[in-house]
UniProtKB/TrEMBL annotation:
It comes from Roseinatronobacter alkalisoli. It comes from the Bacteria. InterPro entries: Hemerythrin-like (IPR012312). This is Hemerythrin domain-containing protein. Residues 38-180 form the Hemerythrin-like domain.
Length: 188
């Protein structure tokens, strides 16, 4: 039996890609059933990727001693709070509303939506670890005896690990959700 957990998979299992084969990514935006809400949802995913990249870049700039500690602390608090809170809210809406609707519309892919729900739980653990690393780093910025570069490096390592999980989840989610929406002309 294969391990399809977020930690181990490198793409959606083949059994969950049947609609993706009919509705490949390159036709999504031109498809008649691609609407504003689907566009908005994909833009939210892009926003998560961009916020994470900004946070990583700012942290690298701090570690390399080119970034002011106060400005970096403000950026870490702003980007970290935004990304973590927005991801939690986004996942709650998906788990409570979108995934049940999509699963009911396409029961053959119900296991895929269960997989995405499990991803959310795995991401919650990663987000908690990221929050801890960010808070440790932010507290250290105000403590003259703290090794702020080492704290920043630990936070960056957490960010870099989280990036792999987030990207894998977002890609898989897009490749499962959008084809179902296009196939069934779903409106939310």
């Amino acid at each position: 039996m294969s391990d399809d957990s977020l930690t181990h998979r490198d793409r959606l299992p083949d059994a969950l890609r049947m609609l993706l084969e009919q509705y490949p990514r390159d036709i999504w935006q031109s498809h008649r059933n691609f609407d504003g809400l689907t566009r908005f949802w994909l833009e939210r995913h892009m926003m998560f990727r961009q916020a994470l990249a900004q946070w990583q870049g700012d942290t690298r700039a701090f570690i390399d001693k080119g970034r002011d500690a106060r400005a970096h602390g403000r950026q870490t608090a702003r980007l970290g709070g935004f990304l973590i809170n927005e991801l939690h809210g986004h996942h709650q809406i998906e788990d409570a509303h979108y995934f049940p609707t999509l699963s009911a519309a396409e029961p053959r892919l119900a296991k895929g939506f269960d997989l995405l729900d499990a991803d959310h739980h795995a991401l919650d653990s990663e987000l908690a670890a990221l929050t801890d690393a960010a808070n440790t780093h932010l507290r250290g910025l105000g403590d003259k005896s703290a090794d702020t570069r080492a704290n920043a490096a630990r936070m960056l390592a957490q960010l870099d690990g989280f990036e792999r999980f987030l990207n894998r989840h977002l890609l898989d989610e897009e490749e499962l959700v959008v084809p179902v929406i296009l196939h069934h002309a779903l409106k939310f």
